[in-house]
Design a protein that fits this description.
Length: 182
Amino acid sequence: MSQRAHSFIDDPNYKNWNIQSAGDIERPELQSLWQLWQDRRSGDLLPSRTDFLIEEFLPWGRNISMIEYRGTPPEYRVTLASVAMIDLNGVDPTGKTPRQYVPEQAYDFAVINLQRSAAGKCAVHDRYRRQNDGKWLNCDRLTLPCASDGKAVDYFLIAHYFDRGFLGRLSDLTIFDQVSEV
């Protein structure tokens, strides 16, 4: 398979779009980030981005990104790109919308987590995988919605964690350039 937009595949053994507890997530780093987000919620209300101090994100510093969201039509703007996001995309997307840095044929893939998180007002965890030297490697993405008023999503915290070797041997390849054979 050589389609740039489907360079790594949705793991058929892992579907978890609406996280209800930290136990729904396998990676400990993402469990603790989800718990921090959950602790800032007030009942069913979402936390605001301002409910977090930037220093609180230090344990996830290389892996956490922030995206501003505006509703109709949906627009997403990266306000802070993590090292992991930059490595995955091959570009620093800070200040850009996905339409400005994601190949057109990969746009839906790049924002499905944001769409599902905004629609469900819930944490979304997705996992993608690719094969490298005969071994399956994972990329986990946790999307946490925030809302200034507790209800209408206007911000996302996103963390990317991927297994060593996920990006392959050639560091100039991005997530959209990878080729996996299933």
